[in-house]
Amino acid sequence: MTTKLPNQISGAEAIVHCLLAEGVNLIYGYPGGAIMPFYDELYKFQDQLKHVLVRHEQGAAHAAQGYARATGKVGVAVATSGPGATNLVTGIADAQIDSTPLVCITGQVGRHLLGSDAFQETDIIGISTPITKWNYQITKAAEIPYILAKAFYIARSGRPGPVLVDITKNAQFELFDFEYTPCDHVRSYLPEPQIDMECIHQAAALINEAKKPMIVYGQGVVLGNAEQELKTFIEKTTIPSAWTILGKSALPTAHKHNVGMVGMHGNYAPNVLTNECDVLIAIGMRFDDRVTGDLNTYAKQAKIIHFDIDKAEINKNVKVDVGVLGNCKHTLTALLPWVKENNHSQWQSSFDQLYQVEFKEVIDKEMNPAGPGISMAEVIEQINQATQSQAIVVTDVGQHQMIACRYAQETLPKSNITSGGLGTMGFALPSAIGAKMGAPEREVIAVIGDGGFQMNIQELGTIYQTQTAVKIVVLNNEHLGMVRQWQELFFDSRYASTVMTNPDFVTIAKGYYIPGKRVDQRADLKAAIEEMVAAKTPYFLEIKVENEENVFPMIPSGSSVSDIRLS
Amino acid sequence: MENKWYTISVYSENQVGMLNRISGIFLKRHINIESLNVSPSEIPQVSKFTIVVNTTQKWVENIVGQIEKQVEVIKVFSHLDEEIIYQESALFKISSNLLFDERQIQNIIKESNAQIVTVSREFFVISKTGRRHEIDELHESLTPFGIRQFVRSGRIAVSKEAMPISTILNTINQKK
What we know:
By secondary structure, chain A is an alpha/beta fold.
C-alpha cells in the first residue's frame, strides 16, 4: 500500500505520484503561474496521467463532477491561484450541495508572499470553506502525501463531497523524501454511523403495519451503490416508490412499482399521495424545499422513516418518527429480513388512477402536441427510442431539465446527471464531457436549453480537442424558459430580460468542427436524433421548440404538495 | 418557538481555519454569535470553542448537526444556562483620581467582589469574574464615574453532565 521513492523528489512530482497512487488517470484543469511546477511534471507523466485542458476552470469543476457522477469515483480538477481558483467556486458549491466527490487542487503564491496581495493571490481557503466538505492549505512539500491521501479519503467516504487543497508554489518546488500511504481513518471523523438495530426494528414494524406506505428515494441510494438493495426491498414489500430528481436512475423508470418523481415539477400521483400515505419511507434524500413544498402541510398524516448517512439531515427539515442512520446499502440490507412480503396493489391503483389524470391533462398533450411546434417532451421521447433508454442523460437547469427528468426513460444506474441542489446553469456541457470520459462505452446525451448552453459554450473547444463523442441537444425556445414561465404565472407576464436573441448555434458548432444540424419541423425530428445517436463523433443538434411552453404539473413555490397544479 | 440562551461547546482538532469554518455555519443561517471563547480543552491537541447564541431550539439543533459533521470536529454539545456552570471575566480601566476622590467606588469594588489588578498614578484596573448580569451590574454602577476602557471575555462553561470526548475518540479509532 505504501509507495516510497528512492530519491528526493519535488512537491510537484509528489502530487503526480499521489494521484497515481489513488488510481487517478484523468484530471481536468487549466494551467497558470502558481500551478506551473505541477504542470511541468504532468508533461513528464502524460502517459500515465491524462490532463484534459478545459476552456474555463468552471468547466474543469463540472467535468470532474460529471466524471464522478458517471463512475462513482472521485473527480479531480486543477486550477491556478487567484482567478483560476475562484472560477472553480460554482462547481465546488454544486458538488457540495449534490454530495459529489471531488478533489480540487489549486496553486497558490509562495509561502513568503501569502497575505501580501501578491499577483493572483486570493484567499481560496476562506472563500471555499463554506462550500467544501474539507479544505487545507499546504505550505511545505512534506505535507503533500498525507494531505492528499486525507483529501481523497474525505471526498469519497461517508456522505461524499468536494475537498479543496491549496498548494503554495514553494511547496511544489521543494525536494523531499516521498512516501505515500493511503488514508483510511481520521480520528475526529466517523464517515458511516454505526447501524442501530433498534431503529431498524422500529422502521420494520411501521412498514409491516402500514396500509398505505410510500417510498421516496434519493441520491443516497446511488452514492451508496444500493440500487439492488432498494429494488429487492421494493419488490418484497410492493410499496409504491417515487424518486427525487437526483435519485432518478436508482430504479429503472419503467419498474412496475416506480410511481414517478416528487417535487415542484414531479408527477401528479406521488405528490398528491404524499399527503395521503400512512407511512413515508425516505431513503437517501434530504427533504429539499423543492420536494416538500410547504413544510407545514407536508405528509402531516404520515409516520415518517428517514434512512440517511448524515445525522445532520435527520429532523433538519421534516420531523421524523424513526431515523435510521447509516449507508443505505447496509441499512436496507439489515432491514430486509425484518419486513414482510406484502401486497399493496390496491394502494398502488390510487397511483395508477392519478397517473391517468396526469396523462390526460399533461402527458398526452406534451407527447402529441396539437400545434406544429415541437414540444420538449417529444424530443425526449425520440431520444428514449433512439437509445433504447440506455443513455446517460445529462441536463442543465430549467424547463428542459424538468421535462427531461419527467420523460427520459432510464434503465441503467447512474444514467441521470443534473445539477439538482444548486441549479447551476452551464452545468451540462462540461459535465457531459466528464461523464463520457468516465463511461466511454455508454451513450452520453447532454440536453441543454439555449440559455444554459451559452453559459459554458466555450467547452465546445474541449470537446473538439479531445474528440469526446458527447451528443449535444440544445432545446431552443429563444427564452430563459423557466423564468419566463414564472413571469407568466406570477409576475403578470412581465417578461423582464428573459427573451434571448440567439446566434446560429450550428455554425458555432461547425466552427469547432463539430458536425451538427438544426431541426424545426416535427417530420425531421426522428431521423435527426437517430443520425445523432449513430454518430461516432461529437455531434450537435439544435431543436427549435415551442417558445412559450410551460412545465406542468407544478407546485407553486410555498404551496402544499397536494395543491399541485395540472395547468 | 421562543428564543433562549444556548451555550454551544465544540471540541475540535486545533487547526488553522477551524474558527472560520465554524463561524460560517452561524453566518449562513443569519444567527449572531453573542460571545465566543476558544481555548485548549482537557484533551491534548483538542480545542474547545464555547459559543453563546440567543435563538430557538430548532436552530440550535440544526447548528449542532452542521458543526458536528465538519471533519475535524469531534463532538458538539448545546446547553441551557441551568445545565452548565459558566462565567465571564471583565476588566474596567478607571482614572486613579476617582479612587481617592469618590469614596463610593471603593464600596462598589468591595460589594461586587471585584479585584483591583493594578494601580498606577494615572489609572487603575478592576477585574470582575462572574455571571453576565453581575458584570452588567458592576458596569452600571461604575458608569457614572467614567469608565476609560471596558472589555468582557466570552463565556466559559463546563457542563454538569459528562462530556466524554476521550471515549468518543476511542470509539472512532476502534472502528478503524
